[in-house]
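Example record for the data management plan.
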Amino acid sequence: MSGIAIALLVSCGGDSGVDDHVPFEVVTVTGLLAKTTYAVRTQAELERMLASTLKPWQNDPPQTLTIDFRQSMLIGVSLGLGRTCDGVRIREIVKNGPAYIVTYTQLKGSTTTACGLIEPLMAFVVAPQTNGGVSFVRDDG
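Corresponding structural encoding:
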């Protein structure tokens, strides 16, 4: 079904196939991670991700995250480096069957000199574990 047909179906009260919104909790991940998306389902995957940190950032202490991977998973986005006032935010996670669709945005901050510092642009959340795929949609609109 085309995107237009789905949009029309939803606007008329039809079922888009999307089940529900997934609750999540924002967590802080430090360091500079590769520019990509992350869906971490196990402690071993988390340890590999944290070990892949490109470098500590501003003398960050070693990262420690405690996640119960029997029930939860870590989902995130790293856009590399950017201005201090430009951030990344995960706006919503929607469950579609067993899969998650993660919508994120890059915030655009002020253009003042105070925003001239460079820092990692990342957003991470803990959400209920899923065995389905996790896809990411950027929506800066």
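Summary line stored alongside the record: The two ends are 24 Å apart (CA to CA).
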